[in-house]
Amino acid sequence: MRIGVIGLGHIGYSIANGLNSLGHEIHSWTRSERTVPWQNSTDLRTGVDRKFDSVFIASGGAKPNSGNLNLELATTLDLVSNFKLSKRTKLFYISSGAVYGECAVPQSEQDIPEPATEYGKVKLRVEQQLQNIYGDQLSVLRVGNIIDEVNPYGIVAHLSTSIETGTFAAFGKPSDCRDYLTVSDFQICIERLVEFDFQTKLLNLGSGQSVSLEQIELLLTKTMEARINIQWEQRRPGDLSQTRLDITQMRQHLKINPQDPVKKLGAVLSSLNLSNHLSD
Questions:
Q1: pLDDT of 128 higher than 70
Q2: May I ask the CATH class of domain 2-279?
């Protein structure tokens, strides 16, 4: 299949790389030159006349702790408007579980979003604008926090720094939690969205299992054999105390049973700790 990916940040790269490894024809667009084993361009006019089976918008410039509506619009809506998409092209926008806001219980696609951070508000606003333009052609993917040890960022990057320095900064309370999804499970979801005859207006992508800061603290203490200092600090402006995703639709339609994120984080920590010892 011919697939376009707008943006090659951590999420966009994992989408393009995973689909390329499966033999799909990939064309990506980025703001700067990048050497990749598929077609990549910094000019959005390049390739727009080609018919794509699917296009993923993974170029959003807003960050969890710096919601910026103008930047998000400029790096999503304004970019995709350059494309003359066939009505048969499936369009996917990579959004975030942050649109649901504080989640005392798992949130399904039928729940009304109540974003509590600027980042969540920005993502929801762009979701709505894209849906107004593309209607049923668009699927919004509300993604949990990705665990990617190969291309580390987010929690993995934070844990790597913690092992190197011997100090873990825990922003929030022990009960604060996030829904984490391994990058391999995320790539399987993307693969099946592309290949299955299935499209939906909204879809949560997560593990359905939120991991608390207390669980991460215990994993760190076990891995480091108490050789780590846990510093509890106040939440940052863009931090939610809890995110919980109901992934019933994901399980049903994409036929996937996600990995246990606690076990995955434990394995990542062991690997990071070993690498740190070998580099000493």
A1: yes
A2: alpha beta
